[in-house]
Design goal:
The complex is a heterodimer of chains A (336) and B (668).
Chain A lengths: L1 H30 L4 H6 L5 H10 L6 H13 L13 H36 L4 H15 L2 H15 L23 H7 L3 H38 L2 H8 L4 H14 L3 H14 L1 H6 L5 H10 L3 H29 L6
Helix pairs in contact in A: 1-15, 5-6, 5-9, 5-12, 6-9, 7-9, 8-9, 9-11, 9-12, 12-15, 14-15
Chain B lengths: L5 E12 L2 E13 L4 E5 L6 H8 L7 E9 L2 E2 L5 H11 E4 L3 H4 L6 H13 L3 H14 L5 H4 L9 H14 L4 E5 L7 H18 L2 E6 L2 H5 L4 E6 L2 E7 H6 L4 H9 L36 H5 L5 E2 L8 E2 L28 E13 L6 E13 L3 E5 L6 H8 L7 E6 L2 E2 L5 H8 L2 E4 L13 H11 L4 H14 L16 H14 L4 E5 L7 H15 L5 E6 L2 H7 L2 E6 L2 E7 H6 L4 H9 L12 E2 L25 H5 L5 E3 L2 E3 L7 H5 L4 E2 L1
Parallel strand pairs in B: 3-8, 3-9, 6-7, 7-8, 15-20, 15-21, 18-19, 19-20, 23-26
Antiparallel strand pairs in B: 1-2, 1-4, 4-5, 9-10, 10-12, 11-12, 13-14, 13-16, 16-17, 21-22, 22-25, 24-25
Helix pairs in contact in B: 4-5, 4-7, 5-7, 7-8, 11-18, 15-16, 15-17, 16-17, 17-18
Classes of the chains: A mainly alpha (336), B alpha/beta (668).
């Protein structure tokens, strides 16, 4: 019951946060130099054409009026119409969020598992060769730019070894996948489409690997540091002094105490990844959310930029909410 | 003859870290037999914990050990990993100091106990849970089944200590090592916890090594004691003899430094324990010893039998003392100062303090109607168990928590009537000396800055401040070179002197001491008590001395109040309250106070159950649930303070109690 009350309270806090985000992005995007109408009409358009286009998108109205219009639309679930493509922003997001989400969630899941396994192992073998090796590798992964790493993986995995499909989309079009959520692997599983599942999985491996390698380092470092701290803590020393077996020590006294410190960092990494997959998406022609948001920004497509910032903000808040709940589950001292 | 359970032979431990080297133990020899309780005493830095760690093979990194730690004949220092794992827990199990810190915060205490049971007693999950419940019940945890699923942070300090003991005994060890098991516990609990260790030796035949700096507490339960000083054994022998008529000057210094409830005076020994870089070639105590001769500083005294003593009593001293440990009569000067006739500097009138819970309604009443007054030149002692509201009272006097009802008047001004600058001015009239001296000094400011803090608040010029600071340093016997140092360069005793100097700097009307010596070592404690005794004699100032240690309060308070669950249960002149306690709670506190002398002389009563404030929420006397004399009227009627002789007590049955006691000791 407590947890439900906590969730409701936190979700209510979402409203003012998102409202603030809406106001800020609405203003900032209009302060940016550049004009969406000029961008779509090209250099040869007459001032009359421009004025007509402006009127069509309501950009000739006073700014307060525009804002109220936009806010009214948001309340009814209408995110506006893309200036560039002329289609509904809501529908476009629907297509784009799924793939990116799938990519980020899988990459983070892989990164978390690797970080926990290697981090704890590393802490238990602290200051030995293996520990130094693991930390060095994580550092190398972290310092490689993701687009370059993606290209190298494509070169090796596709061009040289030929193990993985070409970086030309998310699933083989011949697999006849019926899109439901936009997340192809999930869709394939839901529609029980075996070939599509295999194809989607094969397409996912390289981009997920790229993203995980890039984000694993901070997670690994954090896990190693907290595991070391737990290993030197009084409770752990006490358990050791009472002669408990290595397995009991690891499972009962090390793991949970170590993990209890991870959720907030994982949430932060997750939040950043949603906005920053754009380079990975470009390299793998992923046609995801990041690519879409970036194009919207380049063309000064106001509704697209506003909607994408809103989605990212929403994700941040929800992910941190989940992290707080997970933390409370892991650490009995945390009251929510 | 079978081998001893534990036999440490000539154990030396040197800890090497880059840039420093410490000889933690130098040639320690001691043994513990089955069914025997051995006390290992000495001040911090003496190597007590290092002995404990070496017994379970958990020496810190960079340490070099020589000698032997034989456990049932096998040398722990030479065991391989497998043998060590079997030895830890099942051979020797440590009961850690600070139980709350040593219990894993993310595992229920029941699971932590079953982990030990399944590892060492080969029980299955269900058996272990059942055994765990029994184990909890035997260490005196109420509703053990419910407690199995509790996490450590949900337990009180006493409960956590019981759980820690159950964890250690749950390993079914041959040797139980208790590292300062009673630090931070109340007198009633201390007695109860120590009894558990005696039981472990008597009924289960375990050997028990009891590590403590608190001689008086462990005196009653130990068969033998071993006294450590600077990593060497200075004296070892039967507890009654060593503590009754110690032969080594250090043991004598330790004993004389401890205040006792029977009111005898404390004699301080100057100096502090040295930190040795290498095994000593002389007597490490020689610089502090009044009997030291040239031989003491040129040669290390060998361990020898105490001359003329029968039994297993050894010491390392060229000049063993054989005379009776001088027992000075209670200092009579504290009484008859007539402070009460003077102007009160501090008055508290029916003060209630409530800590609201973070969300929603309700809260916890920490003080429920406390009234007191302190006259200039008078010292008021405040005693009670932890959770009774002592610290809240201190905060209230300093204006750090607001009174929900009632009032605090300092030098005639009502605290609640003032705001802003005037309130801040009034606050400078009350100063506090804290429990943790180093923690209460800012780590980035020098000693001189810290002492000058209240003077800056008063707006004194830099030159005047420097002058005052130097005068204060001289008064508290702080070397002037100390003034430029930072708190981490100070010892506990020096830091507490700095704190007292800081409190005195602004010439306050009231000084509040909140357990000022409980974080200090025994001999240092005695030195600080001497300083405080000197400070509270100032006729212009009133003092409040808060402590859970009755003996300390008895030393220099004029009047004393006894707090229980936020209420005053007894109040009166110190000799009267300690000599002839009216309230059953006061009698119980005095009965369980540890003493090396005769202790409390009247009929004793004992409260065994833990303090639990949920039970006291109802009407009636808050002690009713634990009191042997409670009847139905006690449980329903609110108790007011009533005068009995020249003390006041909140108990309606006071006139009947002498008859109820009938000279016999009562246990609940």
């Amino acid at each position: 019951m407590r947890i439900v009350r906590f969730l409701v309270r936190r979700l209510l806090q979402l409203v003012p946060v998102l409202l603030g985000v809406v106001v800020l992005t609405f203003l900032l995007v209009r302060v940016l130099p550049g004009d969406p109408i000029r961008t779509i009409l090209g250099p040869n358009a007459t001032p009359e054409d421009a004025a007509a286009a402006r009127a069509r998108y309501g950009l000739d109205q006073p700014i307060v009026h525009q804002f109220l219009d936009y806010l009214g639309g948001l309340v009814t679930g209408d995110l506006g119409t893309s200036i560039q493509s002329g289609t509904s922003v809501g529908a476009e997001i629907g297509l784009r969020v799924g793939p990116t989400f799938e990519l980020v969630v899988l990459a983070l899941a892989v990164a978390l598992v690797v970080a926990v396994l290697l981090g704890v192992w590393s802490a238990r073998h602290a200051d030995r060769a293996g520990d130094h090796g693991v930390r060095l590798l994580a550092l190398v992964g972290n310092s490689m730019p993701e687009f370059w790493l993606g290209l190298v993986l494509i070169l090796v995995g596709y061009s040289v070894l030929g193990w993985f499909p070409a970086p030309s989309g998310r699933v083989d079009p011949d697999a006849n996948l019926t899109p439901l959520t936009g997340a192809d692997l999930l869709d394939a599983a839901l529609t029980l489409n075996g070939p599509a599942f295999g194809s989607a999985l094969a397409h996912l491996i390289l981009p997920v690997a790229t993203l995980s390698i890039v984000v694993v380092a901070p997670l690994l470092r954090s896990v190693r540091a907290s595991a070391l701290e737990v290993l030197h803590s009084e409770p752990y020393v006490a358990a050791t002094a009472h002669g408990l077996s290595g397995r009991t020590l690891l499972r009962g006294y090390l793991l949970r105490a170590t993990l209890a410190r991870l959720p907030s960092l994982a949430a932060l990494v997750f939040g950043t990844s949603i906005g920053s997959t754009v380079l990975v998406e470009y390299v793998f022609s992923w046609q995801g959310f990041g690519q879409w948001a970036l194009r919207g920004l380049l063309y000064r497509d106001y509704p697209v930029v506003q909607a994408s910032v809103l989605v990212i903000a929403f994700c941040y808040v929800v992910v941190f909410l989940v992290a707080d709940v997970v933390q409370a589950v892991l650490d009995p001292r945390v009251q929510i | 003859m079978d081998t001893d359970l534990l036999s440490i032979e000539d154990l030396s431990v040197v800890i090497r870290r880059p840039g420093r080297e410490v000889a933690a133990l130098s040639g320690v020899t001691l043994r513990v037999g089955r069914g025997e309780v051995v006390g290992l005493v000495g001040e911090s830095g003496g190597g007590k914990s290092m002995v404990a760690r070496s017994i379970v093979g958990l020496l810190p990194g960079g340490s070099l050990a020589s000698g032997a730690v034989r456990f049932e004949g096998d040398d722990v220092l030479r065991m391989d990993d497998d043998a060590l794992r079997r030895h830890r827990g099942h051979g020797a199990a440590i009961c850690f100091q600070n139980p709350r810190g040593a219990l894993s915060p993310t595992r229920t205490v029941g699971r932590q106990l079953t982990d030990r049971l399944t590892t060492h007693q080969r029980l299955t999950g269900a058996e272990a849970r059942k055994a765990a419940e029994e184990q909890f019940a035997t260490v005196g945890i109420r509703s053990p089944r419910r407690r199995l699923d509790a996490y450590p942070h949900e337990l009180s300090g006493g409960m956590a200590q019981r759980v820690m003991i159950s964890l250690a005994t749950g390993c079914a060890p041959g040797l139980l090592i208790a590292d300062e098991p009673t630090t931070g516990l109340d007198v009633t609990l201390t007695r109860e916890i120590l009894r558990r260790f005696r039981l472990a030796a008597d009924t289960d035949g375990r050997g028990v090594l009891l590590i403590s700096h608190d001689l008086a507490s462990i005196a009653g339960v130990c068969d033998r004691v071993v006294v450590l000083y600077a990593g060497t054994v200075v004296e070892s022998g039967p507890a009654a003899r060593v503590l009754g008529r110690p032969a080594h000057p250090y043991t004598r210094a330790l004993l004389r430094s401890v205040p006792d409830v029977d009111g005898r005076a404390v004699v301080a020994t100057p100096g502090a324990m040295p930190l040795l870089k290498a095994a000593p070639r002389d007597c490490p105590f020689a610089p502090r010893c009044a009997h030291a001769t040239a031989a003491c500083t040129s040669e290390r005294p060998p361990v020898s039998w105490v001359p003329g003593a029968a039994g297993d009593w050894t010491l390392a001293c060229f000049h063993p003392r054989t005379d009776e440990l001088a027992r000075e009569e209670p200092a009579a000067e504290s009484s008859g100062r007539g402070g009460a006739a003077k102007e009160p500097v501090l008055e508290v009138d029916d003060a209630h303090v409530v800590y609201r819970s973070r969300f929603g309604t309700g809260g916890h009443a920490a003080l429920r109607g406390v009234s007191l007054r302190v006259a200039a030149g008078e010292t008021l002692g405040v005693v009670g168990e932890s959770g009774c509201g002592k610290s809240t009272l201190a905060k209230l006097l300093l204006g750090l928590v607001p009174a929900a009802r009632g009032d605090v008047r300092v030098a005639g001004s009502r605290m609640s009537a003032l705001r802003g600058r005037e309130l801040r001015r009034l606050r400078t009239r009350v100063q506090m000396v804290f429990q943790d001296p180093i923690g209460s000094l800012s780590p980035r400011r020098t000693v001189a800055d810290a002492i000058a803090e209240p003077l800056r608040a008063l707006g004194l010029s830099a030159a005047r401040r420097a002058e005052r600071v130097e005068a204060l340093a001289d008064r508290l016997k702080l070397d002037r070179s100390m003034l430029a140092r930072h708190p981490h360069e100070l010892s506990g005793g020096q830091a507490q002197r700095v704190c007292i100097a800081r409190a005195l700097a602004g010439e306050p009307d009231v000084l509040v001491f909140d357990e000022p010596t409980s974080a200090l070592d025994v001999t240092v404690q005695a030195q600080i008590l001497e300083v405080i005794a000197d400070v509270v004699r100032d006729p212009a100032r009133g003092s409040v001395f808060i402590s859970h240690d009755l003996a300390t309060v008895r030393g220099f308070a004029d009047r004393v109040i006894v707090l229980y669950l936020g209420r005053i249960v007894e109040e009166g002149p110190v000799e009267e309250v300690f000599g002839n306690p009216r309230h059953p709670y006061t009698r119980a506190l005095l009965s369980s106070a540890p003493s090396l002398g005769d202790g409390f002389s009247g009929p004793k009563i004992t409260l065994t159950e833990d303090l639990d404030d949920t039970e006291a929420a109802g009407p009636g006397c808050p002690l009713a649930a634990r009191c042997p004399f409670a009847d139905d009227r006690c449980r329903t009627e609110e108790q007011e303070l009533r005068p009995y002789g020249n003390t006041r007590a909140a108990c309606r049955r006071v006139p009947e109690i002498p008859d109820l006691l009938k000279g016999s000791d009562i246990r609940v």
